[in-house]
Amino acid sequence: MKTAIVTGGGTGIGLATCRRFLTSGYRVIAAGLERDDDLPAGIEFLETNVTDPRDIDRMIGAADRIDALIHCAGIQLQEREWQVEDFRKVLDVNLTACHASATAALDKLTAARGNVVNIASMWSFFGSPKSPGYAASKNGIVALTRSMATAWAPRGIRANAVAPGWVLTRMAMAARSDPVREPRITERIPMARWAEAHEVANVIHFLASDEASYVTGVVLPVDGGYSIG
Ligand SMILES: NC(=O)c1ccc[n+]([C@@H]2O[C@H](COP(=O)([O-])OP(=O)(O)OC[C@H]3O[C@@H](n4cnc5c(N)ncnc54)[C@H](O)[C@@H]3O)[C@@H](O)[C@H]2O)c1
Ligand SMILES: O=C(O)C(=O)C[C@H](O)[C@H](O)CO
């Protein structure tokens, strides 16, 4: 049975991604720190800290085969990221853990001719005065995804990323519920609305599917035009 592992799969975009792969008949492993109460029964939740190498080994060991590995785990600590310890924490979860889980999965990905989808961001293209670690990690995801794509193409592995804009999950809730920021943000989005998590999940699923069999190394914005508006 085709298998997808989704880090950060218990909430938000990760959970929507798990639901999407479940619909396609995959075995789905959601590996993360937290899970929503309404996690569908078909999704296997594995408590996992992606910064802990033993947890990464356990996560990869839980799958007989890996057809899709999606790195959705992410944190943002805002201005605290100007402190080096918090900068490191953000890089560790958002970027280094992406490298760690994909390299640990390499043999299983190769055997299944599987693929990797990483989660970039609008902050992959912009700097962020308020969140320097987050922006650095998401800029880094672009380079890491392209490196994976070029290094692993001979193994039959594709590696791509999505770059979501403003998505209605708890990560963006502080901005969403700020009466000053929210209208300014929405006004800047050409499509004039925020994304639902499933709209990002659909694109992740597309990139991981055979429909995208000749696509590798791309960073696909899913942002209602925010990055080009
Ligand atoms: N919401 C947005 O507007 C938006 C926009 C662009 C990109 N993103 C990215 O999408 C991804 C998912 O975020 P979300 O919006 O669904 O928010 P979210 O907070 O619901 O999801 C983040 C997930 O990461 C998990 N996580 C955090 N630290 C972890 C660790 N050490 N080990 C394992 N899991 C860990 C959390 O438990 C949570 O399930 C993140 O990479 C985020 O940067 C979000
Ligand atoms: O990565 C993004 O594009 C985000 O929207 C993440 C956060 O929600 C945003 O930076 C909140 O300030």
From TrEMBL:
PROSITE patterns: ADH_SHORT (PS00061)
Coiled coil: none
MF GO annotations: 2-dehydro-3-deoxy-D-gluconate 5-dehydrogenase activity
A GO BP annotation: fatty acid elongation
Key words, A-Z: Oxidoreductase
Enzyme Commission number(s): 1.1.1.127
Name of one Pfam family that matches: adh_short_C2
Classification via InterPro entries: NAD(P)-bd_dom_sf, Sc_DH/Rdtase_CS, SDR_fam
Source organism superkingdom: Bacteria
Root EC class: oxidoreductase
Protein family membership: Belongs to the short-chain dehydrogenases/reductases (SDR) family.
Name of the protein described by the UniProt record: 2-dehydro-3-deoxy-D-gluconate 5-dehydrogenase
Gene assigned in the entry: kduD_3
